[in-house]
Amino acid sequence: MDQTAAQKLVFAMLDADGDAIVSREEYLARTRNVALAMGLKDDDRLVVTARTLGERAWESMDADGDGKMTFDQYAAWAGAEAFDTVCAPVLGALFDLADTDHDGALDLYGFTALRTALNNPAANAEAAFTALDTDGDGSISRDDYIASIRAHVTGEGSPMGRALYSRPLSGIPAQ
């Protein structure tokens, strides 16, 4: 899958209401959704960290400050540098919310809760988990998770990304 196709899939995931615009509220709801899925309170230190990192990420993505992001704006912003400096910390913080035993890894339950809270199809979560759990130990490390997402959004290809998006998401056909 090329980078543009991968970006369209990620954008569709971020665009929770499917109106072709990601609002500030939609983007920042990601932290709330994961926290709720994991039974965490708003004042939990991990939730506060994830929310703060999410707000910083949004400021970086919303270059014109209008509280909205179109696909073209997202595509112009997204890439390896933006991922490494902005997205990876946010994704790591969201991963930490789902890592309830704080061992740096997610089992299938935690992975599924995280990905569905982030608007990925629940039906694809097990296949994505299996694709990422290359050693078959029943867990996915934080580093492997983030590296797989990076590979997906930069167009390098990711077995987890292919599995997550093997069914349509928000009207965008699977690749």
Which word captures the global form? globular
Query: What's the count of strands?
Result: 4
Mean pLDDT: 86
Note poorly predicted spans.
Answer: 167-175
Q: Portion of residues in helices?
A: 55-70%
**CA(first)-CA(last) distance:** 7 Å
Radius of gyration: 15 Å
**Helix-strand category:** mainly alpha
The number of helices is 9
Order of secondary-structure elements: HEHHEHHEHHEHH
| Biggest pleated sheet | 2 strands, antiparallel
* Adjacency order of strands in the biggest sheet: 1-2
**Relative strand content:** under 5%
Explain this structure.
35% of the residues are buried. Helix 2 (24-37) runs antiparallel to helix 3. The chain has helices at residues 3-14, 24-37, 45-61, 71-77, 80-98, 108-117, 125-132, 142-153, 159-164; strands at residues 22-23, 68-69, 105-106, 140-141. It is built from 9 helices and 4 strands; from the N terminus they run H-E-H-H-E-H-H-E-H-H-E-H-H. It starts with a helix and ends in an 11-residue tail after the last helix. The radius of gyration is 15 Å and the shape is globular. The strands form 2 sheets. It has a two-stranded antiparallel ribbon with strand order 1-2. Strands 3-4 form a two-stranded antiparallel sheet. By secondary structure, it is mostly helical.
